[in-house]
């Protein structure tokens, strides 16, 4: 690549959510552009009106922005460029490289059925390629609007140069004459993408491997226009975790925005996707800057890559626990807490006491949190007044007398009434001493306290939790627990007597 400025594009079709596979293509393309200081262009390929899904353009843009894959040009919309494609299709007809096709869907269906019955591979029989001028005039007289098909050579071979795979030779006789402009005036991918790649000055066409079988058509179309070929880079497919077939919705979350919603960090997803088919030694964790510096298309492995939900989850947790700062994590958790109604808008202001409180809560989980969304479930008790929603049995550890637990909670309350809540070690020592006096193991005492204060059996460390929840709420929750347990003990006694 001497002299030419790199210009690459991501060209999704608005047929639904942006999937991790599409995001991986976008990422590789973006990294390549950034590595070379080139241009990353966004083009929306919306010419197939039957497959168009309302709202998907917005979803694609949001996904790319969330991943930090900002584009330098576009989005261009192919549906706004129909005149350009028509003009190019007509040019090919005029120069004898394409022809009008009057075949109706019914006729095409019938041809295919007959081919199948004869055991031949189904394909267009090229009837309209060989129409006489009179036959053509007769169709025109019927008022039929033709599609336009490209004339593929009927023999010989077409060579597709691919950066990752070398030169691939295709037998022309196995290829059909593709429709390039439909009778409704919309181009197909074969025409629209080639025209746009040329007019937009695209130097490298990075796209999914599923386009490889039609690449010889594309080579011939580009050559018919007399244009230079771009560098083709067919990116490896992404397989299911077990390697059996292509990754799909049925295997789990594949939409980029599903990961956003589930509380994944875009950095983690980017890092994970970068390693789906690309590598730089054995390293796994790369910052965005490192990826830009190290990325090269030549290092892409052309064989299929397996998607691993577990590995992605691991990487996300690693980023939360080890890569981002506590301040950063706090800021990112707040929208989730807000959406759950646990904190107010004020929490967004880093100078507010509410923000400081959230930070102290998040600090307790920083080294354990797996996703941002999890923060809601794990910390809700820090933000609400009560924890009443648990059954009384939860307060009673196995092989422990309920009445003894009740006494233990009474005495715990008395101790915590005067304890210094900032002194975790002091509270711990006092309560360990209490357990000993009552003949309980530490866990037999700590568990009921944990349940009383948090409403659950799993929480951050007990004493740091007490420190953050504070005296007032701790005592109130102990009172609720004691009342619950007193009723439970009385009920048991009544049942026994
Ligand atoms: N619109 C095509 C798709 O979504 C893009 C293929 C390409 O990048 O050229 O599959």
Brief descriptors of the model:
497 residues; mainly alpha; Rossmann fold; Glutamyl-tRNA Synthetase, domain 2; 5 domains; 12 strands; 47% helix; binds glutamic acid
Could you say which structural class the secondary elements and strand pairing correspond to? Answer: mainly alpha
Mean pLDDT: 96
**Count the helices. How many?**
19
Report how far the terminal alpha carbons are from each other.
91 Å
Q: What is the CATH T-level topology of the largest domain?
A: Rossmann fold
Q: Strand percentage, roughly?
A: 5-15%
Bound ions, cofactors and other small molecules, one mention each:
glutamic acid
What's the Cα radius of gyration? Answer: 33 Å
CATH class of the largest domain: Alpha Beta
Helix content: 40-55%
Strand order in space, largest sheet: 1-2-3
Please tell me about this protein's structure.
This protein has 19 helices and 12 strands. The protein has 497 residues and is mainly α. The chain folds into 5 domains: 7-76 and 193-238, Rossmann fold (3-Layer(aba) Sandwich), CATH 3.40.50; 83-181, Alpha-Beta Complex (Glutamyl-tRNA Synthetase, domain 3), CATH 3.90.800.10; 249-319, Glutamyl-tRNA Synthetase, domain 2; 325-383, Helicase, Ruva Protein, domain 3, CATH 1.10.8; 386-496, Arc Repressor Mutant, subunit A, CATH 1.10.10. Helix 1 crosses helix 10, helix 15 (402-418) runs antiparallel to helix 19 (471-496) and helix 16 crosses helix 18 (462-469). The chain is elongated. The mean pLDDT is 96. The structure holds glutamic acid.
